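Mods, move this if it's the wrong board.
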Amino acid sequence: MSGDDKNWLDREKLSFAELDRRRRDGGRSGDAREPRNRAERERSDAASKQHLKQADGIFTGGNKAERERLAAAMRDAHGTPGLADACRAYHAAVGLPEDPRLASLFLDASDREVILLGFEALRVGAEKGSITLSGSLRSQLRILAEDSDDAVADAAEELLEAL
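Not the wrong board. C-alpha cells:
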C-alpha cells in the first residue's frame, strides 16, 4: 500500500448529507463561517446595512446631488406658492421623501395631491421605521385633520390613528 492509500483509509467518511452540503456550497465546507462574537456580528451587520444602502441608492430615483438640489429647492420654496411645484418635482425625480422634515414640507403645500403624498411618505416611513413622528409633526397632522378638504382631513385622521 502506498502512503496515499493509507491516508484515504484513515480519513473520516462523510455522510450523504455532508456530501450534498459540499456539493451545494460549491465544495466549500467551512469557508463561509458565522461571526464568532458579538463585536464581529455587529461589524458584519453594519457592513451589510452599508452595502444595502449603497445598492438601494442605485435604485432610488436620482443621484445624491440631484436629491439634495431638489430638497433645497423645496426648502427655499417653503412659504411660497411654488412649494407644491417644488414638491411635485422632488416626487417625480426621487419619489417619496424618507426624511420627516421633507415630508412635513409636503404637508405644508396648499395642493391636496401633494399633501396626500406627504401622508403616504409618513405612513411608509413609519412602517419601515425610518420616520418617527415628533410632537410637531403630530401637531401638524392634528391641524390637517381639521382641514376643510374632507379627503385631507380623513387621511390625516387615519394616519394619526395608525401611528
